């Protein structure tokens, strides 16, 4: 029986790595998530065996990882061992297999999100305070003297 790798998309989040094996109408699905490796196999609609073996960039929590099948793909939610640490790549080796792609539709640069969110919150509070002072009819000098930052 012929065997080939499934097209695989991946993206990174603070707690999870997401893998999507793109195989339509798959049967006989097997996903083995180990601490440093993922092994995927299934048969596609044409009876071709799909097989991927991925040595992961870093350790994962295999006990707290899951998978979900749809008509078009099998998605794995793989829990990182060290949360909030970005992975620069999926594979341990610094080599990109031809069947592996970054899922740019779901990719997000989440590093630094907390700092950006805090800055936006501070800016929102400052603007809200100014609007309140305008609403109350306080002059800018009065508003500045009541600014809690000073």
From TrEMBL:
Transmembrane segments: none annotated. Residues 3-91 form the CS domain. InterPro entries: CS_dom, HSP20-like_chaperone, p23-like. GO terms for cellular component: cytosol; nucleus. PROSITE patterns: CS. One of its GO terms (biological process) is protein folding. One of its GO terms (molecular function) is protein-folding chaperone binding. It comes from the Eukaryota. Belongs to the p23/wos2 family. This is Prostaglandin E synthase 3 like. It comes from Chelonoidis abingdonii (Abingdon island giant tortoise). The lineage of its organism: Eukaryota, Metazoa, Chordata, Craniata, Vertebrata.
């Amino acid at each position: 029986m012929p065997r080939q790798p499934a097209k695989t998309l991946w993206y990174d989040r603070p707690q999870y790595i997401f893998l999507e094996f793109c195989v339509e109408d798959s049967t006989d699905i097997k996903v083995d998530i180990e601490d440093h490796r993922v092994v995927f196999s299934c048969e596609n609609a044409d009876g071709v065996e799909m097989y991927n073996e991925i040595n992961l960039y870093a350790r994962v929590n295999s006990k707290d990882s899951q998978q979900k099948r749809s008509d078009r793909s099998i998605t794995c939610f793989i829990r990182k061992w060290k949360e909030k640490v970005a992975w620069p790549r999926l594979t341990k080796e610094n080599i990109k297999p031809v069947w592996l792609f970054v899922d740019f539709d779901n990719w997000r640069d989440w590093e630094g999100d907390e700092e950006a969110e805090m800055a936006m919150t501070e800016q929102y509070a400052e603007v809200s305070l100014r609007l309140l002072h305008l609403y109350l009819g306080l002059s800018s000098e009065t508003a500045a003297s009541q600014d809690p930052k000073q």
